[in-house]
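Lab notes, practical 5.
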Amino acid sequence: MRAMVLLLLSAPLLAGCVSAVKTVVTAPVKAVGQVADWSTTSQEEADRNRGREMRKREERLGKLTRERDKAAEKCRDGKEEQCQRAEVLEHEIEAEMAAPY
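Output from the prediction step:
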């Protein structure tokens, strides 16, 4: 009878121990899973990053094109240094278009 009472009184203490053991045992598995999530890129993330890079590239090309057009206009007005600038900008545009995403 006495053993039964001790067993019933110690049951809540054992439940806490079991919970702590479970937490300790599953922690490394959860940590490895989190590292795997952090170290891999999902297809959605890759698509989003590629789209962002394409928009940035288009913005750079637009800016270079506008600068080249302004320099070419000034070149037609007789400003020799702007002719050289337009040529340099044209090469930058070509290099930007040839670069991979």
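Observations recorded by the TA: The first helix runs from residue 2 to 39. Residues 64 and 89 are 6 Å apart (CA to CA).
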